[in-house]
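Progress report, Aim 2. The chain analyzed during this reporting quarter is listed below.
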Amino acid sequence: MPEGVAQRNIKSVLYHSRFDWSISRAGLSQEEVAQHMHTKQTVIARLESGRVMPSTRTLQRFAIATGTKLKISFDPGPTI
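Predicted structure tokens for the chain:
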């Protein structure tokens, strides 16, 4: 599998698990999260699936809707 595809697959799994965890932890359905975000349930389903790359604004709205804190960080990586 080409490296770029593998990285996208890993990111998809990470997004899915984090969105799914946040919704479960909040005790909300996708529809309820969508209502809190003033959007449609299908948007939340796409976020959970990892098929889209959400904006920071969307991530912040999601965090507020699920009662979680958005944390974006840069971790040291391998040197090039």
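Confidence is low (pLDDT under 50) at residues 1-10. The first helix runs from residue 3 to 26. These observations will guide the mutagenesis work planned for the next reporting period.
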